[in-house]
TrEMBL record:
Cell location: Cell membrane
InterPro entries listed in its UniProt record: MFS (IPR011701), MFS_dom (IPR020846), MFS_trans_sf (IPR036259), MFS_Transporters (IPR050171)
Domain Major facilitator superfamily (MFS) profile, chain residue ranges per copy: 1-450
The entry's keywords: Cell membrane, Membrane, Transmembrane, Transmembrane helix, Transport
Presence of the UniProt keyword Transmembrane helix in the record: yes
Name recorded for this polypeptide: MFS transporter
GO cellular component: plasma membrane
Organism annotation: Halohasta litorea
Amino acid sequence: MLPKLPPGSLSTHEWRFGLVISSVHGVQHLFYRLFPPLIPILVIGLDSPLWQLGSLVSIYLFAGGLGQAPMGILVDKFDRQYILLPAIGLMSVGYLLFVLGSAVGPAFPAVELFGHSFSGTYQIMAGGMFVAGVGYSGIHPVGYPLISANISAEGKATVLGMWGSASKLGDTLAPLLIGGLILVVPWEWILVGVSLFGFVYASWLWLVFRASDIETRPPSALGEASAGGSSRASTGRSSRDSSGAAGGSWRANPRQFLYPMVTILLAFCFILFATNGLITFAPVFITDVYGYSLSVGDLVIPSESVANAYFSVLLLSGALSQLLVGAVAKRFDYRLLLIGLLALTTAGLAVLAVRQLTPVVLVAVFALVGACLFGINPIRDALISDITPPAYEGRTFGYFWTIVLLVSSGYPLVIGYLGDTVGIQASFQYLAAGTLVGIAGIALLYSPRLYRQRTSTAAETEPERQ
């Protein structure tokens, strides 16, 4: 029998669905985080500065952001499985192209741009990252509406915690794979293996959708507006507006949707400066600032592998914290939780930027930062889901991630440039500044001029229909 997380009351169907949809998020992040652990290796192999390698992550995020809004529109109109499965396939294809760049790239001429040279290898790798990013863009707009369609309102925060935790498990697995397997096989074969796994996983997911009662159709296909939400999807909406009512309420009452969404969006544009910078350069931060290596008998574990072990601590702590936060979030004010976790994150990043820590203390600080920075994810998603009209949830998350990813796509390049100029450790003070501004943005949600929570759905929506 599957265990239940407090204080949830998930049905057997919800538990099974939660595990399936969480695995999707985990696989997405496995692909997303494959590149950062390779930076300490590629910075030597490609003879490229940090800002160029950081721009490969920027290309991935740019493509991932560019596709989110159109994906969000599609998932509100078409069966979600027909968007999800090709998205996973594209992530696999993108990394195969990335590996191909290493093999055939030297045969292509270099390109000079703004006084900088970009080799043929780099160009093909950049193309692969773009394709993988397009695949990445399909996961979030599909995942959140699927959770709303298959999970009750009372259990949503718990499943969002599972969803967020799985992403950090995927994040953790990536550096562990790179750090461990790089000792015995070239990095190219690691990426080929993960890409092949992606194709197998997409095939398995297709079989699961065919054999289960997971609802993948959008509300428009189910006729929720006319039928009164009699399908399973209505279970998750029991405490919210109907599709039609909600569709008008965001215009009539901008403080219930428009103003708070814009505020959250701006806040996370700054918060993601810290998130993207930390995840992209944490391995090279450990390598350059601390340079730990180990010897076990005749086996020498290089500093790159040790750095990825520290990186895994950062991500694994985030996985565990999201399970806990998702389970208890309903008991607290979402805004207060966000501010508290961001404050602890800011303090941890500031310590990393100015102090030289012992190995044990460094583990503790990485665990604290990871737990707090990634622990905000289920709270953010639950808050956005709560204030979003049901008929627009796919588009809302699509537009949200389009904007924040496009804005933040340049962050790895910026942090890479700062690392090249002021030093990678000193650059972490700017990450702390990002979370500090994010705290100020979330605090604005306490103003009734910007955010008014729904109290009685029926009372609120009836005047709006008149």
